[in-house]
Amino acid sequence: MNEEKYHRWLREIYSRSRPKGFHCPDHYAAGIRNINNRLGLTEGGLFAVNTTMADLEKLLDNATLTKTNRTHLRSFIKFKQYEEQNLKKS
């Protein structure tokens, strides 16, 4: 999984339905980079292969994240679930 794939997924959702409250895909991709920087994550950050769903859900409770960071993180968790479902299908 990588940032480019996440960005394409966001663009696909945005072009299909433009969900209420959903900003442009660039905003969400920048949000994930912000979370990586805020938490000091390196080596791929949230896009690292060994990042589990449990790890991501624990991050939602991290005190250093802002409300906006949590919104972006929830979007990323949905993407990760989508990716895992696709892997199971193939």
Quickly describe the structure.
The chain is mostly helical and 90 residues long. The protein has one domain (3-89). Helix content is 66%, strand content 0%.
Task: Describe this protein's structure.
- By secondary structure, the chain is an all-alpha fold.
- The chain has one domain.
- It is 66% helix and 0% strand.
- It has four helices and no strands.
- α1 packs antiparallel against α2, α2 packs across α4 and α3 runs antiparallel to α4.
Keywords:
mainly alpha, 90 residues
Distance between the termini: 15 Å
Low-confidence stretches: none
General shape = globular
| Biggest sheet character | none
Order of helices and strands: HHHH
What's the domain count?
1
Number of beta-strand segments: 0
**Mean pLDDT across all residues, rounded?**
78
Return Rg in Å: 13 Å
Derived from helix and strand composition plus strand pairing, the structural class reads mainly alpha
How much of the polypeptide forms β-strand, as a percent range? under 5%
The helicity comes to 55-70%
Tally of helical runs: 4
Topology:
Layout: H1 3-16, H2 25-39, H3 53-59, H4 67-89
Helix pairs in contact: 1-2, 2-4, 3-4
